[in-house]
Amino acid sequence: MMSNRIMCISSAAVALCVLPAVGQTITEDYKLLRNFGVMHDNFGDVVAIDDGIVAIGASSVSSNSGAAYLFDAATGSLISALQTTSGTPEDRFGYSIAIDNGIVAIGAVTDSDNGTRSGAAYLFDASTGEQIVKLRASDGSYDDNFGCSIAIDDGFVVVGAYKDADNGEDSGSAYVFDASTGAQIAKLLPEDGNADAFFGDSVDIDNGIVAVTAQNYIDGSAYLFDASTGAQLFKLLPTDGEADDQFGHDIAIEDNIVAVGAPRDDDNNTDSGSVYLFNATTGAQVKKLLANDGGVQDRFGRSVAIENGVVAVGAWGEFDDNGAHAGAGYLFDVSTGLQITKFLASDGEEFDHLGISIDIDNGIVVAGADGDDDHSNGSGAAYLFSTPDFCPADLNVNGVFNFYDVSTYIASFISNYPLADLNNDAQWDIFDVDLFLDSVAAGCP
């Protein structure tokens, strides 16, 4: 736990101590609410943001038929409420949600077109609110829960079905679809699939690589696949994983980095939580992230997202600031693994669960708080935050670039310390030095 100690780096050439990050300011812009709310609607349980549009699911609305809503990130105003053309009670439409390039992807985990609780997913036009296509698994069947997770990027849609039974009961699977046509491209199964693995519990996709977790609450794992061929690339495991860490509760991938949450890791006390970073090209673990002020039952890592070298992490159980399980969010620098800042809801209260879901795009963070009670007990909310200007060369994240950052880098490089592995390839070479020099040349805000 870094908040109460100093991290020291030493080598034959230089010895120094790096002070813990002091944090930078993050601004709360808007609180997002519907015009109405009902107890335990699950509004804010899942969130997504892309190109100035925020998508929020509320899977318990209207007798669990579910709903989804789009908001303008610039103004906080509601754009539209999305409705299916074939939805029925108990479909849980809005159980999962994603958005990319003007298309909103939404899971309806208990839709029954292919059998009770077989599941379905929908694509909508974000600008018009019109339904484009309904997605179903070609081999969907009873209790698959297709739509439990969803992701979309660059023309691909990935949908998890964590209770599919191809490799045994509740072994799970994931499917890849063409976002333009709705055609199924591939079905993803792990090479070592087995019963009760819950493969497909969380999914993400970036640049043609699909990331999928198998989070069975005992000894979870994660996998990478080629979106076009369905071929497995790597299996990801933490170097210090233990039973019941819930490794794989959430996953995110961007720019060759995979972030995997383990919200019941115990490094900072029981169920304090952690996040692991992996290199998508090699499958190697490159960093482990811990909150500077992590504590018992924070569930740090319940939600994760990555954008432009910044990892956003939700800790829905955090209670040091706004009461029991009020929740909090954190930002970390991918290259250094250091905490940039911690953020809270301005009106946070106990059991709001801020950070139950999280996403980040273009410097804006959206964090769900499904326990907020502005309209009714547990009616839910979401918050928008603007991230601070961040200087990659400021290695100790104190808002200033100076001699101490250069010394820190030199010492880290000589000692093969992860702080200096700026391209996260588990090697310390000229490519890392070039990246550091580039960040110095770019200057700080």
Descriptive notes:
The protein is globular. Residues 1-22 have low confidence and may be disordered. A hairpin with a 2-residue loop joins strand 16 (199-206) and strand 17 (209-214). It has helices at residues 61-64, 403-414, 430-442; strands spanning 7-10, 15-18, 27-32, 46-50, 53-58, 67-72, 78-82, 93-100, 103-108, 120-125, 131-135, 146-153, 156-161, 173-178, 184-188, 199-206, 209-214, 221-226, 232-236, 251-254, 257-262, 274-279, 285-289, 300-307, 310-315, 328-333, 339-343, 354-361, 364-369, 381-386. With 445 residues, the chain is mainly β. The chain has three helices and 30 strands. It is 7% helix and 40% strand.
Provide tags for this entry.
Methylamine Dehydrogenase, Chain H; disordered N terminus; 2 domains; four-stranded antiparallel beta sheet; mainly beta; 445 residues
Task: Show the helix and strand layout.
Elements: E1 7-10, E2 15-18, E3 27-32, E4 46-50, E5 53-58, H1 61-64, E6 67-72, E7 78-82, E8 93-100, E9 103-108, E10 120-125, E11 131-135, E12 146-153, E13 156-161, E14 173-178, E15 184-188, E16 199-206, E17 209-214, E18 221-226, E19 232-236, E20 251-254, E21 257-262, E22 274-279, E23 285-289, E24 300-307, E25 310-315, E26 328-333, E27 339-343, E28 354-361, E29 364-369, E30 381-386, H2 403-414, H3 430-442
Antiparallel strand pairs: 1-2, 3-30, 4-5, 5-6, 6-7, 8-9, 9-10, 10-11, 12-13, 13-14, 14-15, 16-17, 17-18, 18-19, 20-21, 21-22, 22-23, 24-25, 25-26, 26-27, 28-29, 29-30
